Amino acid sequence: MQTAASERNSARSPVPLTKFRMPRLRGDSIARPELLARLRHSVETNPVTLVCAPAGSGKSTLLAQLGAALSGTCAVLWVAIDDDDNDANRFYAALVQAVEPLGLTWDLDVAGLLAGVDGNGRETRAALAAYVNALCTAPASRVVIILDDLHRLDNRDVFELLESLIERLPEHVALVLGTRHEPPLPLARWRVHAEIGELSARDLRFDEAQAMLLAAARLGQELDARDVRAALKRTEGWAVGLSMLLQSRSPTQHAGGGTPLGGDSAKRTLFAYLAQEILDELPLDLQEFVLRSAVLVELNPTLCRAVTGRDDAGAVLDAIYRRGLFLTAIDDLAMVLRFHDLFRDFLEIEFARRHPDEVRSAHARAARAETVPARAIHHLLKAEQWEEALGAILRIGESLLAEGAIGAIERWLGQVPASIREGNARAHYLLGSCAALRWNWARALAELAPAAEGLTSPSDRPQRVLALFQLADALSSSGNVPGALARLDTVAQLPLDDLGLAELALQRAWCAAAQGDFTVIAPNMETFVRHAERDAERVAPIVAGRIHCMMVGLPGVVDAFEKFVALGERVRGPVGAPWHLSLHAIDAWVKLWRGDRDGMTHALERAESLYQQFGAIRLMAERIGQLKAIHSAAIGNTPLATAIARSHIQGMQVPELAAHRAAWERAYRHAFARFHWMAGDAHAWYEQYPHLVAARAPAEWPFVSTAAAVAEGQAAVLRRDWHAAIGLLQHAIRASESRRMPAIHCDPRVTLAYALLASGQRPAAWQMFDTVLEELAATRAFGVLVLESRPQLAALLDAAPPQMQHDSRIQELRRMLASWGTDPGPLLRVAAPGSGGPLDVLSEREREVLAQVAVGASNKHIARDLDLSLHTVKRHIANILAKLDCASRGQAADLYRRHTYPL
Fold first, then answer.
1. What is the pLDDT of residues 438-495, one digit of tens each?
2. Among 88, 435, 500, 704, which has the highest number of CB atoms less than 10 A from its own CB?
3. Cα dihedral 496→497→503→509 (10° resolution)
4. CB atoms < 10 A from the CB of 198, how many?
5. Confidence category of residue 269, pLDDT binned at 50, 70, 90
6. ∠707-708-710 over CA atoms, to 5°?
7. Do residues 180 and 345 make contact, with C-beta atoms less than 8 angstroms apart?
8. Which residues, 6 or more positions from 139, have their beta carbon under 8 angstroms from its beta carbon?
9. For residues 484-498, b (16+ Cβ closer than 10 Å) or e, as one string?
10. Domain boundaries in the chain?
């Protein structure tokens, strides 16, 4: 069990503890019992409550009052959102650190959880499962988490993570969101289902009675009701504006109305007022103090001393807090304050106006005093100290990469001028690594190439090796296999340990698969396993996520995968880690190829369990999806299999995946079509046919040509054109000798055996199928037949000579198919033509025409394919409808699909 994991994570990537301390209520805060009661009721009855109002409406004060009111009966947690949280990984880290006071029980390492969060919506939803599970162990009967200043965030990934949390909240946990504007969350749906409570700007407006109380509290005296009403009219009950007017001590001077506060014009009016009535009333030394302190996100004596040069910064902070200068106290023990955002905006603008030459130097001094690396980087960037900023980013970049905080890295480096960043190999390495995690191969190549060239010093060697491996993977994944091999040759010239040698062999095997050089795949996989055995504790966690499972079925790969899984199981600890997900996924593919349904199901369940706990980078999500689709298709759940495949194809259409899509979309479509082929859905399969047989694009791997040849043979089978099918499938078999990917497309030999059988060549059909069985028995890979057409397998098994029916291979295959929920006996046997079915009334030519109709071919297509005139085609169709007593082509096609040879 892990209860201090988040503490370890905080030590690695510190977050200021003041973020999690509830603001101290001012002595002159106004109690608003009715409003507080409404808010409290909402929190008690809804999983989420939204307090949405413009700046200065009193949201934070109201939320702090709520926290104080609930503290006796609930565990109240506070998170002050700031700009550093505008990244899914950092936001998740803040959520984790916020719940530390609860003493939750974690079954998993929290640092490992952080490493799996990268912002993909599906991935971040999964990552929150462990967080929610931990919340369920809270000893408190009720937990309220308050997120204040949510408007600081605009990152879509963050809001996908937050939505996922809200959708999964345990019954005893409520979330309160304080924000200036409605967040991009499914508010409409929650409103319809009464799952959200809301307070708006209208609810937070002060009324006359409350304004009178505010005046008395802030000024120590009652004001004339007419003055209060005038202030209310001008501010429309806006808390900060009302407070400013009341504190001016002469609201009658401004009672003539004015523009409603909001928009640029109103902001200029407000800023002018702040300057005239607030800032100018301060002594000059305090004016200069608050102007210079405005560059800080949070004010404490140390930071204020650095930016103002005043040794009495602590005493000054206390003095300006007592003056009510729109400050919030963050820490009760130490003097840590935060300006109200609007006031800070004004002060920053005013500081730049009065002292334009001092802004950058103030940020530079703040950077030197700041102990939180992220905030120091912010100040260095504002100070335009580009070299120092870049150095600070590079110092923590590797740890942020390990945590998956790629958004922060990209945002910071994007602010550094290209002239500074371009020549820095480590900066290129970080940006390239971020792009690779996003599968944005074009950008990864553009960044990793100069990184690999520039990381030449001995101290840079580990990063150079990693950069070269990532570069090779990006090149091969985008279709440039020769370029990938060239990079691997470069890596091979460097001193490599067992980890480097293992990955080198693995990537060479992958590139050999692309080139069709099957003779070197098995030796490279053996080398990979040998080096992995020598240093399994280092190799398994690093390399597991880099293994391309689509290699399964190529020479020597299943055996190597099996050995690697055994290694990984030996070294993996009792606490789940992200790399275990990849290990279980590899194991699932091995079990599939072995024909072990129970083993595959168990491995998939283990992988899915970890996916729910950790989430993953895009590769992990795709890996789980592909595996689940294959498993679903194999057990007969075609709708789920095709839904997953369709979603993967749709997900590849985003611009950042353009290079990946160019190389791999066809492979996804072949898998999609394969599921329909397995299920015997000819119409759905034929919808994909144009994509399957299109000309091969330059970025695509050669195996797509073999897959296309297989598809052409399958189309001929659908047309019952056995002569054409046999010729096309023989061509596909020859092509598969040098380029194939069994995880993607069907085995053309199985389909050819079926075509031979259907054309009456029973001995030749059995001889072809027997060759397949002999090979699969030798490699213990009968499971691949689970991914073929079940009716075809049944027909081929029935075609075995009588003396072979009790052959051990056939018996094993029958047992295996039965274990996958498929009875290879009589239930799968199909009627051959001439066996008394309803189609026997048709002539052979009419059957050929109907076969074309059944796959959606037009009359013109049928005429061209069968070398008939249009008139003859129409006559055949009319005869078909009459003989079958069908009212339409669709009815006749459906009858054909149900009663002819299935797929």
1. 888 999 999 999 999 999 888 888 889 989 999 999 999 999 999 999 999 999 999 9
2. 88
3. 70
4. 17
5. low
6. 65
7. no
8. 102, 103
9. bbebbebbeeeebeb
10. 5-204, 208-279, 284-384, 651-828, 838-899
Fold of 838-899: Arc Repressor Mutant, subunit A (1.10.10)
Q: Return contacts of 872-877, CB within 8 angstroms, 24+ apart.
A: 873/849, 876/845, 876/846, 876/849, 877/849, 877/853
Half-sphere exposure of 803 (CA within 13 A, CB side): 0
Largest CA distance in the chain: 111
Higher pLDDT: 791 or 12? It is 791
Amino acid identity of 6?
S
- Give CA–CA dist 472/464, Å, rounded: 12
Give kind and range of the element (H or E) at residue 682: helix 682-693
Question: Can you tell me the distance from the alpha carbon of 434 to that of 432, in angstroms, rounded to the nearest whole number?
Answer: 5
Task: Please name the residue ranges forming H helices in 370-415.
Answer: 373-382, 386-403, 406-415
At how many degrees (to 10) do helices 557-571 and 521-534 cross?
A: 10
Which token pair is 203? 């609810």
Q: What is the pLDDT of residues 290-316, one digit of tens each?
A: 899 999 988 999 999 999 999 999 898
- Could you tell me which CATH number the domain at 651-828 has? 1.25.40
Q: Please enumerate in sequence order all residues whose Cβ is within 8 A of that of 639, keeping only pairs 6 or more positions apart, or say none.
A: none
Supply the mean pLDDT for the chain. Answer: 84
Sequence length of the chain is 903
Instruction: State residue 497's pLDDT score.
Output: 92
At residue 192, what is the residue type?
V
Q: Write the DSSP assignment of 543-590 as a string of letters.
A: HGGG--GGGTTSTTHHHHHHHHHHHHHHH--SS--HHHHHHHHHHHHH
Report the amino acid identity of residue 265. S
* CATH of the domain spanning 5-204, picked from 3.10.20.30, 3.40.190.10, 3.40.50.150, 3.40.50.300: 3.40.50.300
Q: Are 152 and 122 in contact (CB under 8 A)?
A: no
Query: Is residue 541 predicted with pLDDT exceeding 90?
Result: no
**Mean pLDDT of the region 29-55:** 89
CB 631 within 8 A of CB 414: no
User: How many H-runs (helices) and E-runs (strands) does the chain carry?
Assistant: 46, 7
**For the sheet containing 173-179, what is the strand order?**
75-80, 143-148, 173-179, 48-52, 196-199
Contact predicate 821/863, CB 8 Å? no
331's enclosing H/E stretch is strand 327-331
pTM given for the model: 0.70
Determine the angle formed by the axes of helices 441-454 and 658-679, rounding to 10 degrees: 130
pLDDT at site 84: 84
CA nearest neighbour of 280 among 177, 341, 350: 350
- Name the one residue in this structure whose structure tokens are 């370890």: 8
**Which pLDDT band holds residue 897 (cuts at 50, 70, 90)?**
low
